Amino acid sequence: MSNVIRREFIKQSLGVAVGVCTGFGGLHALAAAVEKDKKPGRKFRYLGWMVGLSYQTPRPEGKHPEEMRRLVREMRDNGMNLLSLMLISYSHYDNHDGFCWPTRRKSLRCYRDEHSLNANEKTEFLGEIIEEAKQAGMHVQLMTNWGLWNPRRIVKGYPKAAVQQRADGRRTGWLHCPDNPDVYRCGQDVMLDALEQYAERGVDSYAIEFPGYGECFCSFTREAFARETGETLTPQWTQANPAAFERWKQKHIGGILKRLVDEVHAEFPSVEIWLHTACAPGRGHSPEFIQKAGIPTVIPYMMHTAGDFSDIPRNLRAVDPLPAVGHVCVRSKPFKNYAIPPKNPEMIRKFFDAIEQTTADNLAGLMFFNESCVSKENRKAVYEGIQRLL
Ligand SMILES: [Zn+2]
Fold it and tell me: pLDDT at position 306, please?
């Protein structure tokens, strides 16, 4: 509810109360309503969990259907209305590896997680969970990373897919570069395959992290750069023209995002595409070109580093004017190859203090990550914090 609408609502309530309410209960309720209006809080459109269906779950088979059913009820009882389902794991960070739904495209079969219960056609259960979440009034989202695929396995379905190329010619890192046609094809196949399976069950949005890069000197990126600028992409050029290079990346990656969104919307026009980004340097993301791509909402990091909440206002400013649903790491366990400290209830309480004091008006909600990797204490702190925002 906007402040103007809220003021109007209170004014109308006052009129009704003066005319009708004479008992103590009526006046008490009215006083409470006026008091609530004075609170600096906001009405969040989205509050919920992002859940790794296999990622960081304690068992090889990942989530079980009864766990997910329990979670939907628990979320509803605690005022949550957003369920984001992460459908991929990567063995660099976790013991699970691959897509955890029964992929239908032949080329995606190479990276299906055969241990995952939901990835097996006979034991697939997510469709029913999506329907139950919809019946509970939730916004349901599918989520996958773009390019955080095991390079050794993904090439069996996408032979020319390759990790990014550095200035010195070495190839390191991930398959984030969408200029590589097989990488793009895989990223698009992932989204379409998951949506073909689940959109009709009640999916409202699909979130991706990446594509994009700080720099990539693969032949495809060099060709795209030459075609679009007339210049030759070299480390010397990028170092001499850092602002122009960043601007080119933002426009170029924005154009690829637009193509992707248009292609997904051609099959699924009502499914929103969200982007998990803070528009920080290194990804080629800017609010201007994200907006032009037809992406209505972004998911910037929050509480990524423990004890420092400076990323809340910084990231909200960076993605402005796009509405932002904060991606809040509340994981309670350390995990491999990722230097992010585990979180505890005290940090989570302080995070909610910081949120209550945030004045940015593009904060549309909060998404807590990863439900599959939180302690009982952290879970309780999240639900208690949500009560402060309702
Ligand atoms: Zn490239």
Answer: 66
